[in-house]
Amino acid sequence: MSGKPKLHYFNGRGRMEPIRWLLAAAGVEFDECFIEKKEDLTKLQNDGSLLFQQVPMVEIDGMKLVQTRAIMNYIAAKYNLCGKDLKERALIDMYVEGLFDLNELLMTYEILPADKKVQHFANMMDKAENRYFPVFEKVLKDHAKDFLVGNQLSRADVQLLEVILMADEYKPDMFSKFPFLQSFKARISAMPNIKKFLQPGSQRKPPSDDEVVDKVMKIFY
Amino acid sequence: MSAKPKLYYFDGRGKMESIRWLLAAAGVEFEEEFLETRDQYEKLLQSGSLLFQQVPMVEIDGMRMVQTRAILSYIAAKYNLYGKDLKERALIDMYVGGTDDLMGFILMFPFLSAEDKEKQRAFIVQKATSRYFPVYEKVLKDHGQDFLVGNNFSWADVHLLEAILMVEEKKSDVLSGFPQLQAFKARISSIPAIKKFLESGSQRKPVPDDKYVETVRRVLRMYYDVKVN
């Protein structure tokens, strides 16, 4: 296995995108092996690479890691993105779990059939605007530092930026009532590793179009 | 705030049960405040104690922690149930992720219609015996040790035992093809802190019943139909 982590997933955001963001923020180069058709997934399952028969899977440091949280915990800890002590980690974990919940809503929207999309969209935007973003707006306001926790970049900042940008794609005017999130977005986006990841040609994935959704359905369902 | 952790949830398993298990396994005494009325829940919301307006919430070490995984990670790390290094932690996280997914199928079970319950029961058993149990059976067989990770009792062992017992409640002989898991179950159950938690009178909660479902629906105003995956 090469020195670089190797990501196994389809060529789209899904559950792998937060992992791509985290690696990019940590300045870690990675390779990707895209699952294009069902046979690609079956092959991985049959050769014992996927502990629970599922992707994401990341080959890293001699391990074949599965389970999004396990992968992200490992990367965050290895590259010092989870705070300086247990209490900072607790805060970061709380924020990150809330962001996972919101990300789940945003992510599943893409693969819903058209007749379910409308209701889901309303629920998703409601949660974003009334449950999640107000929390982070307040944290930034009260904490009054550049980052969500302590005084350094953590995985919580990276994940929050990711989710802000995703929500932005759906409803940009949402952020007019969140001035602290707006300046947070500008500030974190300007950090060199993040800035690079936001440029065209990076490994960041675009929103899934019909073609990608179609492919995903064929591979997994 | 008292010195003991204080758990805010319904008087039933739900998402809080794994937290009860882990605290018990760590030998940590805890208090509980049960949500019975909508009023109580609204007071809690207004007090700003629930970061994302949700329970579980645990008052611990001066914090009001929410989000089940965050709470569990904190307890595991604090009480040395999270492995000795990053690699052991990765293994524990993977194993816990699997049992979490499995128990997730059971979480919604009480809220399903009678017809959907039968389908879901079959689904749970199928996933347990074809996707999850074989993994842990193999892990134990390959290293031949008493515990899942690093020859030491960890969060992964507690979580797996909890999952095994929950699936057995859906099908009592579900472990029949898994000799390693049978021995594991006996072994972990006999650890003093676990044994105590398994005895009647402990804070372990029983299988959710209609009263529990009705309480949750009433407190959360969750009156919509819950559908299977």
Please characterize this protein's 3D structure:
The complex is a heterodimer of chains A (221) and B (229). Chain A has helices at 17-25, 38-46, 68-78, 86-111, 114-143, 155-170, 179-189, 192-197, 210-220; strands at residues 6-9, 31-34, 57-60, 63-66. Chain A is α+β, with helices and mostly antiparallel strands and 221 residues long. Chain A has two domains: 6-80 and 198-210, Glutaredoxin (3-Layer(aba) Sandwich), CATH 3.40.30; 86-190, Glutathione S-transferase Yfyf (Class Pi), Chain A, domain 2, CATH 1.20.1050.10. The mean pLDDT of chain B is 96. Chain B is globular and about 50 Å long. Chain B folds into two domains: 6-79 and 198-220, Glutaredoxin (3-Layer(aba) Sandwich); 86-191, Glutathione S-transferase Yfyf (Class Pi), Chain A, domain 2 (Up-down Bundle), CATH 1.20.1050.10. With 229 residues, chain B is α+β, with helices and mostly antiparallel strands. Helix content of chain B is 55%, strand content 7%. Chain A binds chain B through residues 51-53, 61, 63, 65-70, 73-74, 77-78, 86-87, 89-91, 93-94, 96-98, 101, 131-132, 135, and chain B through 51-53, 61, 63, 65-70, 73-74, 77-78, 86-87, 89-90, 93-94, 96-98, 101, 131-132, 135.
